[in-house]
Amino acid sequence: MKAANRTNSDTDPQPGAHPGLAATTVAFALSRGLTMAQISEATDIGGHDLAVCNTRLPEEVLPRIWRLIGQEVTSTAPLTMDMAKAAPFSFFADIAHGAQFAETVGEAASLLITHRRVLSDLVEAEMTYDGDEVILSSAHPFDYLDEGRSSEMSNALVWRLLTHLARDPITLTRVEFAHAPTGELAGYQAFFGVTPRFNAPRTAMIMSASVMQTPIQHASAELFSFVKMHLEGLEKALRASKATDALAPLKNAIIAASEHGEFQPKAIARRAEMGYRQAQRLAASYGTTLGALIEEHRFRLARELLDQPKNTVENIALVLGFADDRSFRRAFKRVTGTSPTDYRGGNKRG
Hints:
Radius of gyration: 27 Å
Largest sheet: 4 strands, antiparallel
Structural class: alpha+beta
Helix content: 40-55%
Strand order of the largest sheet: 3-4-6-5
Distance between the termini: 59 Å
Number of strands: 6
Strand content: 5-15%
Order of helices and strands: EHHHEHHHHEEHEHEHHHHHHH
Shape: elongated
């Protein structure tokens, strides 16, 4: 499957990948004689950040490390298969841990595909059925950077994980890679049990559909349900984090404008150095509106000001840009469900 085209606006947060992907690959590169200085130069990231980073890294980091390995390490065997044999399943973060509780190989594979964004914002993957075969296909827009090496290793490790989890032996029918081989074919055949087809239209692992029904050794419906909820929570947190980063220009502009009693959407957009429609589209892309962001901050200020007894409702209305205190009272009750006077009284009692 070809990766979908993606265009980022200047205000979009940078796509990122789970730091564990880079840390594991760095360890493999070091084991093959590369130095941290070489890896840091190739990725433009400090060695400490690569080895113990707790935040998502740019999507190019993993393929840049693999490109360096391909350039600096002489080997006729495919190095990607060597790493796939030894890499810990923690390479796939919490997804691999959760897959062990799936009922079948198909459920485990589906978990990896459904929650792939935990690992990478840009990776594409799908599971499709074609007659009596099932196709696990994948693609990443930066596959060209390392001539497909990170794609080879990731697919090989997925296959090793599935065979490890399956209660009975499972086999592949075909393997296809959308790039040229990076080592001798015998190394691939020894790992997959079949010789891959290279320079194919897609990258995919193909097997009999019956393989998907193979039971998992440690299946647990209760634990698998918990794992899925956990992964959904992780993805939700990632989306929220991206929204925070992307909306920061608007939120900062709202804060700056409020210091001057300015709460008009078009004025906010100008302060954020955006056109009004551009600001509206940005907010909408993260499930909100420019007006809602302004209102959220405006009434947060209202609560803070009401918490200070010296501030009269009339003065608060003026500071927050309302025409008069009656307009403020109506708006405050609409947003909070209570009047400014009752809000202030309730806080005093508390």
